[in-house]
Each structure stands twice: as C-alpha cells, then as structure tokens.
Hints:
By secondary structure, the chain is of the alpha/beta class. The protein has one domain (3-266): 3-Layer(aba) Sandwich (Rossmann fold), CATH 3.40.50. It contains eleven helices and eight strands. Strands 1, 2, 3, 4, 5, 6, 7 and 8 form an eight-stranded mixed beta sheet that branches. Helix 1 runs parallel beside helix 6 and helix 7 (169-179) packs across helix 10. The longest helix has 20 residues, at 3-22. It starts with a helix and ends with a strand. Mean pLDDT is 88; it is low at 26-34 and 36-42. Keywords: Methyltransferase, S-adenosyl-L-methionine, Transferase. One of its GO terms (molecular function) is arsenite methyltransferase activity.
Amino acid sequence: MTEMKNDQIRQGVRDNYKKVALKNIDTNSCCTPSCCTPDENQNISVKEISQKMGYTTEELTSIPNGANMGLGCGNPQAIAVLKEGETVVDLGSGGGFDCFLAAPKVGSNGKVIGVDMTPEMISKARKNAEKPQFNHVEFRLGEIENLPVADQSVDVIMSNCVINLSPNKLRVFEEAYRVLKDGGRLAISDVILTTTLPIDMKQNMELYSGCIAGASPIEELTSYLQEAGFKNIQITPKDESKEFIKEWAPEHRVEEYIVSAIIQAEK
C-alpha cells in the first residue's frame, strides 16, 4: 500500500470510530455495534457480546456506564496477569473499557494509559474516568504506530481487536517494543486471517474498519513480532470466536476467513 492509501485507511477507521463514539449506546439494548462495525440490524446487546468474548458479569458491572461499547474480539485481561504497581498501555483504548478493568489490578501505585487516534473516543474515555478510583488512568490522543509514551516505561501492552486496523503492523510492534521495559510483555486479543480473502472483500473499506479486511495470517504476525525484537511469541487461535464473528457481517460469511486469537510475546 502507498502512504496515501495508508492515510485513507486511517481516516476511514477514524471516521468509523467517531460515529461509534458519538452514538449513545445502552449496554443492555439490542441493535448495537459488534467489534468495529456499527450494525443496526443486530438483535444482540453489548452485554451479551462482551460475555461471548469472555468477560464476566462482575467485570461488566464494575466499569463506568458507556465505557463498554461491544468493541473487541476477546478479553486481553484474561491473559495479561496484571500485578500491583505495573504500568499498562492499551492500544486503541476506545471508551476505556479494558483500561477501567485493568485499573484495580495494578492498584493506585500502578498506572493505566489508553491511547486512541480518535478525538471523540478520547473525550468519551476521559469523561468515563471522572471518578476517584480511576485517578491513575489517563487517555492520550495518538496513533499506535507513533505512541505518545516514553521509552522503556511500560510493563504490559494490551490491545483488543485494534492492531488489525493498522496499515503498518510492523511499526506498531516496533513501537510496542520501544516503550516496553526489559521483560515487558504483550497481552493482545485480535483477529487473524485463516485463509485468503477475496479481492473485493480485501478492498472493502467497511470491512477494513470492521476488523476483517486488515487481518493478517499467523505467519505474517509472527514475522513482524520477530523483526521488532520480541521473543517467546505465542499466537493461539480461538475457534469458538466464530460464534460471534459470524454476526459481524453475515452477508460475507466472514467467519470462514478470520478467527480471534490471543497474541503473547516478551521483550
């Protein structure tokens, strides 16, 4: 892809998330967005979507109203094994959902930083964070390819169905490596490609911003992680995720091409 194409992709994704951020989403209502694509025809609630991704009822009731917008493809919290005092960065933090779940795990001596390139998402997350228990949570406007985070300052990097949206995934992992401390780790949930996408689907901007057309196969992601410098790389497909992925764009039968996976690696 040319740089112009890359910028077109970023703008398309940003426009999509702006619409989601400005949408007033009721956690218990139907007709809500799933993953990255607002779909007015779904008869499923945000809460139901999140439970399918592995979040517990306790987790879903512990966060500010509006933080959970049903955007994601898994639960990075389940693999992050966060510890008291750690600093965590969430790539593509949206309304702050995973950041708010990470906050009590790292405690007041820890820090949670959400990074998102959509101003409307940052505003929404900051409003959600206006509670005393989230004083150690902050949200920064920026691209995940150019993180507004200092070198070697982070213990854990999380992300939930966002890296697939980047047109420069190698750069994302290079930036992750830069900001992680020695021994730091990745705890990522994302979609991976299981077979070749038809050209018309690959060039469909709606499917790109819907976490489908930008997915990469395991071999490609592994190569990016290795080139960035990571070790102990593990990418684990979750076949059960097809149960909610098939609802993203039913007319394209996307569950035949992508699946959610857990991506782990260490610096």
